[in-house]
Amino acid sequence: MKRSILLAMLFSLFVGPMVQAQEELRERLNDENGVRTDVWVYNDIAAAREQARKENKPVFVTFRCVPCKACEAFDADVAKGSDEIRKIAKEKFISVRQVEMKGVDLSLFQFDHDLNWAAMFINADGTIYARYGTQSSEGPDAYNSIKGLLATMERVLELHENYPANKSLLEGKRGNRKIQSAFNLPGLQNPAKYRGETTRKNCIHCHNIHDAENMHAQKNGDLDHDLLWRFPLPDQTGLMIDRQDGVTVSKVKSGSPADEAGFQAGEKILRMNGQAITSIADMQWVLHHLPNEDTTVEVEGSRSGIKTVSLDKGWKEYDVSWRGSMWSVSPKLRVWMPILASAQRKKLGIDDENTALEVKWINQGSEGGKGAYNSGLRLNDIVIAMEGKPLKDGMDPKQFNTYIKLNYKVGDTLPITVIRNGKKMDLDIKLVE
Questions:
Q1: 1.20.120.530, 2.30.42.10, 2.130.10.10, 3.30.950.10: which CATH number matches 234-311?
Q2: Rounded CA separation 89/52 (Å)
Q3: pTM higher than 0.90 for the full model?
Q4: Fold classified for 17-184
Q5: At 412, is the pLDDT very low, low, confident or very high (cuts 50, 70, 90)?
Q6: Among residues 399, 388, 393, which one has the least CA distance to residue 427?
């Protein structure tokens, strides 16, 4: 009896307040998907690691920016919708739903921070087993699936069962970032705001990590575009990976580096640069750390064996316009220009091969917006050309802005052509921010 009373007292003193704090956070964030408390440890990685150490289970951490709409459906499937995920997450893992980056050890949890949903799998001792979560210009849900996540989880369980004998296959999965707290990132903007009680308005989002890295590099004058080609897909090597499986080659691009190395469709990628592969995100981690110069990557296939894939300078470059962290890169135009509707384009005589962007908002409270306005840009202007060339069909506002960031610098002038009140006008926009 005395022991039970003591345990109840300890619970009320330590566990009770912690549970209450988690519930309050869930309510402030209006986290409708964070309701399965029988499966998920809520926003407490340290507690999960301690539990995993006691039960000898791997830790499964999902990172989710609750206010973001992108990946909302997939997050709901993982967190509360899929019975398969619920079963394996509860029985085989210690599972964590992490909803902010405050308090996250950035020296351990390094992944593509532009993702709206991401997962990492670790041993309680901090050894990293795997990453899951991939995004591209195709959209936030083009690569993620319950089937793919389950496949990665099964591979993680195999790695865990064979640990630590397989530790050499996992050593490269941990990065060399030394900073542990987001508050210590030198490029973090408005740290005082973030230090307050977490709400939807002051979460440190995952993409804020890359934002801080960009801002710091720009401040020091050493922002290299090669920094922006983060986490390239294995497609860049010619390996097209089955998105539902995560490791099987669905196609090898003809004439690509992977093709020249001898890889074949249908085989599985087992290792890259000696690291065990469980997902496309694992492959991206390896490729992320290679230079955008002439380089090589060692890839082991289930049929081809170990091959050296030779990559030429510029191999990492791809469409990064979807990345939220690109907005922190200068020059910043600070103008919202959605695509003009097809019917309106036809009225203006713009053919199907080209597109147009309509100026809906100019942020005159920012230096970039002021610069655009002072250079002559006005609301309802229709941008039809840049550098004297029509905007090609398919160019969206993010791609338009990304082109500026990759090809111009602050102080340059951007030549555009607009239609205003039915008349064409050429403008030279001074890029000031």
A1: 2.30.42.10
A2: 12
A3: yes
A4: Glutaredoxin (3.40.30)
A5: very high
A6: 388
